[in-house]
Write a structure and sequence with these properties.
- This protein is α/β, with parallel strands linked by helices.
- Helix content is 52%, strand content 12%.
- The chain has a five-stranded mixed sheet. The protein has a five-stranded mixed sheet with strand order 11-14-15-13-12. The protein has a three-stranded antiparallel sheet with strand order 3-5-4.
Amino acid sequence: MKVCSQRQLKILKKLLDKEYVTTEMLSNYLHVSDRTIRNDIYGINELFPGLVIQSRTKGVYSDDLESLLQIIGQSDAFGPKEYTEFNVLKQILSTNHMDIYEFADRLFMSDSSLTLMIRSINQKLQSASFKSRIRRKNNTLFIECDEDEKRRLLFYFLMHEYNDHSIYRMDYQSMFSSVDLSSIREISIVFLKKHKINIRDIELISFTIHVALMIERTIQGNSIGDIETVENTYYVGLAEEYLNLLSEKCSWSFNKNEVGYLANLFAGKVLLENSDQISELETLVNRTLHDIKDAYGIDFLEDMELKEKLLVHLVGLNNRVRHHAYLNNPMKEQIKIQFPILFDISVYMADQIQEYFSIHLYEDEISYLTLHLMGSLERIKKKNSKKVVILSPLGESGFQYFSHRIQFIHEYKINVIQIISMQEINSVYQLKPDLVLSFYDEVHIDGIPVYTVQNFLDNEDIENIYSLLNVLNKEDCSILFEEDLFFAGKNFACEEDVIHFLCEKLKHKCYVQEDYENLILEREKVAPTAYGNLFAIPHPIKREGIANKVAVCILRKSIEWDSQKVKVIFLASLARKNNKNFEDFFARLTDLLSDYQKAKKLSKVNTYKEFMEIFLDKKYSL
């Protein structure tokens, strides 16, 4: 059965209410970007061709109301409440044994469909490093684990399956039949304020969900057993007081062991300073930033604000993971799509952090590292200084005006080092500027870019200079590709087969070492490289290539890659030496992610020349 995502169903329901709906209206309603809405509409039309029609002037609409009603009706009958993996897991955990045939009948599913869903759940448990699995014996389903583990399983699935929920609304309420999330949230806010504990909105939602699962499991008769509890008396005191408050406000009674469960939860949310830990983490942050500078050529070492924020983040991250107080990030997918290089650096950081703490990080936590890097990169850009020489017939008389006019061009700080005349033009080689601004026409200086001023440095000139500086900061990525590393019309069954094929081709040309394939597969375990819009960019966590190259494979039929459809694979060999060509490469991939039509066009090419022209947006000569 074809199943839409929850957000896609909300779009379809809006189309029932109105004749036309704009993407702007839908993005405001669902709290996502216009691009996400467009991708959802493409996804709907892939499942149900022609269901949603787009008008350039009026927005989107559907003229097939019968199909709309049928699809929405099916979603209400089969889920998302009863049909999702979360609810399947929840119902199996609610009893010691579950007959598979009776369960399938209750869900209006065939036993084979239920078996496939259970297989999917078990694969996700494995990828998230859980030891528990749904077992089947004599047509009976069961999970063998303690109550603490069961709650962690439920929390993980709830937060990850419903990762597209708005962080501003308690959309999770539909998943709880006997608990009012709003009441728990209000009780928690009052309690946290009383104790002067400040947590972010997303952490408050995480805390509320944990408490709701505790209450619902207790109501169902599933109290926590003896668990390893944090020894700090501060956390235990918070847990006892909070549990008494819950009992008083909501007339619930709890097993005393729930104090230990809550104490661990508070330990994951509330930070206490530990000087020894801080010192060790400072060393980890500095070492990791040094490695990033060597591997990626981006120097974050001078950004003290980043170091302080990473330090605080790592203390909280370590507490959260050790006490199973997981934190989801509803912006994760957008971060991955819009900032692929920074997310890639975050995966590299996560690898260091995992090794140091001996913990496993989910993509949600990794994407929070990306947010810190995004802020730092903006601060670095503001300090980005460029040396400029001005070639002018006015001589030094215009120095003060010109220097002031172009002192800052967006994130670039401009340092006018000298104004020279045409008679002194040869001196420009000693000055070594990044750019020459010329008030003379048709000036050419070998090896140094020249911008010809059109209107005495008006706003148009300023924007043109800015565009040129951006181009100069990047190098054309075409050098990364080779015709004999381009393969179209191939058929593979899975991502591992494609990765093996392309790695063998790169090894044959001595661009990568023998273990490159294993390094890529290790990266896929940490954070899969399928970014949406039909393509994936497999590469290792660290820059382990011998040469900077990209092998490309375009499949005849798409394959499933971490639940994404993929037809175009860019397998990157990243050498340790810094290479600005990859900045242009990743920038073009980012554009590709926001342009589904271009991505689809790229997925249908048959020749290397056609591929290069579409990817580079220009004519290409072999």
